[in-house]
Design a protein that fits this description.
The protein has a two-stranded parallel sheet. The protein is globular. By secondary structure, the protein is mostly helical. The chain is built from six helices and two strands; from the N terminus they run H-E-H-H-H-H-H-E.
């Protein structure tokens, strides 16, 4: 007989992941210290900020690592974009890097996290460009989730 603290691993892990996603949405419902919803003079749209090859690599990472708990629909669509509109790509990158994977936060390489971000941009219909999404914090802070024209 299973006790509450010994729930089946799969269900427990799924619940923890869903809780983490809900926490991420609530954390970023409004600006927090050090973050601003208003773009700086040097910011640009996420449109064209990644390559198709980088997004394809991100899809493989997402499927193999994130797909155990998450589906792409959790990170795309109008509700997702409303939460992130005006924010920097770094804000989401940093949240994911510090919280995921749930059993090993920060356990992926910086390039893997960046490629996952490129994949998330693609599934939100931001067009690919000719230059890879940068992996540095400063560069990611200048790229914003803005409505796709």
């Amino acid at each position: 007989m299973a006790t509450p603290d010994r729930a089946p691993r799969t269900g427990h892990r799924r619940l923890l992941c869903m809780t983490a996603v809900a926490a991420a949405f609530s954390l970023f419902a409004g600006p927090t210290a050090g973050q601003s919803a208003s773009p700086s003079d040097s910011s640009r749209s996420a449109a064209g900020a990644y390559t198709a090859a980088q997004a394809k690599a991100g899809e493989a990472v997402f499927s193999g690592t994130c797909g155990n708990c998450h589906g792409p629909a959790e990170f795309s669509g109008p509700t997702f974009l409303r939460v992130w509109e005006g924010r920097s790509v770094f804000d989401l990158f940093d949240q994911i890097r510090n919280a995921m994977p749930l059993d090993n936060p920060g356990g992926l390489s910086r390039e893997q996290y960046t490629s996952v971000m490129a994949y998330l941009l693609r599934i939100n219909e931001y067009p690919a460009g000719d230059v890879e999404l940068p992996a540095t914090d400063d560069a990611l802070k200048r790229i914003r989730f803005q409505p796709v024209q």
